[in-house]
Amino acid sequence: MGTSxxxxxxxxxxxxxxxxxxxxxxxxxLQKALQQEGIDVNLRTIQRDLVALAEFFPLEHNGLSPxxxxxxxxxxxxxxxxMTSSQALTFMMVEQHLRLLMxxxxxDDLRPWFDIARQQARQGTSPAHRC
Length: 131
Hints:
Blueprint: H1 3-18, E1 25-26, H2 27-36, H3 43-54, E2 59-61, E3 68-71, H4 85-98, H5 104-122
Antiparallel strand pairs: 1-3, 2-3
Helix pairs in contact: 4-5
């Protein structure tokens, strides 16, 4: 893979990581976030990247000018690499023991991760099932 391909892949991966599930991220704020990572790219490239990524990922834009982008509300939690067993156990413990102490909005944001942790536990990949 060439340098330009690998840098484009890295840039697009960073864009995906910075898109919210609630609210909207504008291309200017995404550009600023990329600049903080040492990636200098113009707004038009970011717009093209987002359009291309939306063909493969559940992304949406608000149609305004300038456009805002985010993950669709029903988008599954996406992660690479797979959640580790210790991470799954941690999410399960947070859900069980801290749910009454955490704001509902935080719990809503974490719900996809709780679901993944429970799924891993059912599959026997959680440390709790190895004891």
